[in-house]
Amino acid sequence: xxxxxxxxxxxxxxxxxxxxxxxxxxxxxxxxxxxxxxxxxxxxxxxxxxxxxxxxxxxxxxxxxxxxxxxxxxxxxxxxxxxxxxxxxxxxxxxxxxxxxxxxxxxxxxxxxxxxxxxxxxxxxxxxxxxxxxxxxxxxxxxxxxxxxxxxxxxxxxxxxxxxxxxxxxxxxxxxxxxxxxxxxxxxxxxxxxxxxxxxxxxxxxxxxxxxxxxxxxxxxxxxxxxxxxxxxxxxxxxxxxxxxxxxxxxxxxxxxxxxxxxxxxxxxxxxxxxxxxxxxxxxxxxxxxxxxxxxxxxxxxxxxxxxxxxxxx
Length: 314
Ligand SMILES: [Zn+2]
Ligand SMILES: [Zn+2]
Prior knowledge:
The protein is built from six helices and 15 strands. With about 325 residues, it is of the alpha/beta class. The longest helix has 15 residues.
């Protein structure tokens, strides 16, 4: 197990809707949603957009370098949390190479959208007619499970995979000792079947991942409470206020927030830092950098998430 006194966040994919591998877009990044978290010796991956592919490739390199003998190589253990099953949050999953390794243990959690289990949704969307192999042909020890707001995931010190439990008091979601705890909140502010928002807590630090959600007038109070005092709030910021309210092509009701909405919720939650995330695919580097400069003048603890950016919470 790796160094346990660690809580790092690395943005692997920050783009909303679809990848933008285009000149003028690559400083902020062209890959769709994926955030790598290394916490307490555990690897947690938020969403499986195309950003997960480079992460999988790096994990494979380390795995191969760990031994010449296949069976004594350090196994890859990862927990993937899916916000929802729109294509930009799952389209990298098939190409996550650790799935091809017998010794990998991969656990995937998310909500049961459209009255289907997550397992069925993944199987139909990613391993149906659009991909050459079946989900049953995956070599890794893979389990795909539903999770609800009333459940939490707990990583113990010597357990590479989390166990799920219902929680009955607020104390249950406060980690003790070396525990890492994941709690979640369902938001219905994303058409048509909502989105799961996750909080990862370790020692006295936490991070909240809230992508693909539209905000409400006066901030999203449920989210502000869920994310209260968090060290890092990663929040959907797909549109400028101008595009959101465009009289010709308004984006109201599309299930995404503006930069202002993200700031409003971060302030209501008293989040220590805010990462803007999930940018409209038409916004290039120049536009996003100007937007960042403008909003840092209003809320100094905000920044534009960009591909490859890494920060430590502990
Ligand atoms: Zn999205
Ligand atoms: Zn979506």
